[in-house]
Amino acid sequence: MPRRGHPCRAGGSYHVYNRGNNRQPVFWSDLGYRAFLQAFRPYFDIPLAHAAGSPGALLAYCLMPNHYPSVLQPEDDALSARMQRMLFSFTKALNANNQRVGTLFQGQVHAVAVETDEQLIHLTAYVHCNPVQAGLVRRPEDWEFSSCRE
Question: What is the CATH number of domain 13-142?
């Protein structure tokens, strides 16, 4: 897997996302969504934050059927390595539980630096509005697998 051109730095804000291989679903049931969230939080040991500004915060997330946009402020410089380990572990467990083999996600995790507060606000709204745009719910807070209600 090629290395990211710009490393993710502690305290920076990043739009972190990936999607299912061949744009296929990653989550097939509520159990899959819950398993991903259970895997996600311990790997980062970061609580959901209600305000930007504190390093090591999960600012927003939204698990969609075939992708997971999120906004993270890592507590250290190991965001890429943590994501890789977490996704490998999740994929291995999902494959074992569903009698499947092979990759689940498409390529490496994407992490795009957020440069301004305005961009951060817009990105958080974008993440939470994903299920509305996809026609899954009418309001962002109606999607169970999002940080919008938190």
Answer: 3.30.70.1290
What local confidence, expressed as pLDDT, does residue 143 receive? 96
Burial 76-87 (b: 16+ CB within 10 A, else e): eeebbebbeebb
Distance CA 90, CA 40 (A): 9
- Measured in whole angstroms, the distance separating CA 148 from the mean position of its chain's CA atoms is 14
Cβ-based burial of 38 (10 A; exposed 0-12, middle 13-18, buried ≥19):
exposed
> What tens digit of pLDDT does each residue of 57-95 get?
788 999 999 999 999 888 778 788 888 888 888 888 888
Full-prediction pTM beyond 0.90? no
- Domain locations in the chain? 13-142
Give the DSSP per-residue string, 12-24. Answer: -EEEEE-BBGGG-
Rounded to whole angstroms, the Cα distance separating 78 from 61 reads: 19
Contact call for residues 13 and 71 (beta carbons, < 8 A)? yes
